[in-house]
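Comment thread on ticket #2218

A.B. wrote:
> Attaching the input chain for the structure job we discussed in standup.
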Amino acid sequence: MFTSTPPLRVEVGRTWLWQDEVPELAVGSTVQLDTRGDPDVQVYFDSRLIARGHAVVVDGKLGVEVSELLPTDTQGDKTE
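C.D. wrote:
> Ran it. Output below, let me know if you need it in another format.
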């Protein structure tokens, strides 16, 4: 049986584009990212930030070197 797992998302940076700027994008376009002094990469699991790190290239492939693991929210595990 196939079960759906939450997605893992890796963010290198973010930017905002105006609606009229999107159609101007083409193959080879460059979009400047706003990093605001944050670490290079943030890793999210099921929309929750779980780690921070830096982008690295290993054997020609892009990867993430994790420099900080963030505590997980254990609120759902508490019993009263």
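A.B. wrote:
> Thanks. Noting for the ticket: Strands lie at 8-11, 41-45, 48-58, 61-69.
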